[in-house]
Design brief:
This protein is mostly beta strands. The protein has two helices and five strands. The structure holds coenzyme A. The site of coenzyme A (COA) has 14 residues, from β2 and β5.
C-alpha cells in the first residue's frame, strides 16, 4: 500500500488531549522554573523525580499514621520532555497495601499553552513507601477498624 500524502498546508500535529484525568486523585501541582533545566533546555529529570517522590508520599502520609520512608522506586518512565512553564499535575493511586508498605502509582500531566493548548502525560512512576517506627524500623501499616 502507498503512503498517504499529507498536503503541506496541513499541520500534522500529533493527536493531543485537552483534558486532564478525571478518575484519579490530584496530589500536587507545580510549575517548573528556568533554574530546573538540563543541558538540552528541558526540565532536569532529577527535579521531576523529586517532585514525583513528594507527590507519591501524599497518599502514605494519609494512611501510615506516622513516620514513613521511600524504600524503592520500582519503575520510572519519562514519556515526554517537560518544558519550562508547563503546569504539572501529579495524580496518585494505590497499587498495593502490604504489611509494612504502600505502593503508589504516580502520573504526571503537563498543561502547555504553546503552540496550542494541550495536556500531555509526561511521566509515570511506581514507588513504595514503608511505615517506620521511632528507631527507623518497619512497622505495620495501620488497618481501618472494622465497622
Ligand atoms: C525503609 C527501611 C526501613 C526498610 O527496611 P528493610 O529492612 O529493608 O525492610 P523489609 O525488608 O522488612 O521490607 C519492608 C517493606 O518494604 C518492602 N520492600 C523492601 N524492599 C523493596 C523493594 N526493593 N521494592 C519494593 N518493596 C520493597 C517489603 O516488601 C516490605 O513491605 P511489606 O511488609 O508491605 O511486604 C530501610 O530500607 C531504610 O531505612 N531505607 C532508607 C529509606 C530512606 O532513607 N529513604 C529516603 C530516600 S534516600
Amino acid at each position: 500500500m502507498k503512503d498517504a500524502i499529507v498536503p503541506s498546508s496541513i499541520d500534522p500535529a500529533p493527536a493531543a488531549s485537552t483534558a486532564l484525568p478525571q478518575d484519579k486523585e490530584l496530589v500536587l501541582r507545580v510549575i517548573p522554573m528556568p533554574a530546573d533545566v538540563n543541558a538540552n533546555g528541558d526540565i532536569f529529570g532529577g527535579w521531576v523525580m523529586a517532585q514525583v517522590d513528594l507527590a507519591g508520599s501524599v497518599i502514605p502520609a494519609r494512611h501510615m499514621g506516622g513516620r514513613f520512608a521511600t524504600v524503592a522506586v520500582n519503575q520510572f518512565l519519562f514519556k515526554q520532555p517537560v518544558k519550562v512553564g508547563d503546569l504539572l499535575s501529579f495524580y496518585g493511586s494505590i497499587v498495593r497495601i502490604g504489611n509494612t508498605s504502600i505502593t503508589v502509582q504516580v502520573e504526571v500531566w503537563a498543561e502547555r499553552q504553546r503552540p496550542h493548548y494541550q495536556c500531555v502525560k509526561v511521566t509515570e512512576a511506581t514507588l513504595t513507601y514503608v511505615a517506620i517506627d521511632e528507631q527507623g524500623r518497619p512497622r505495620p501499616v495501620p488497618r481501618p477498624a472494622p465497622t
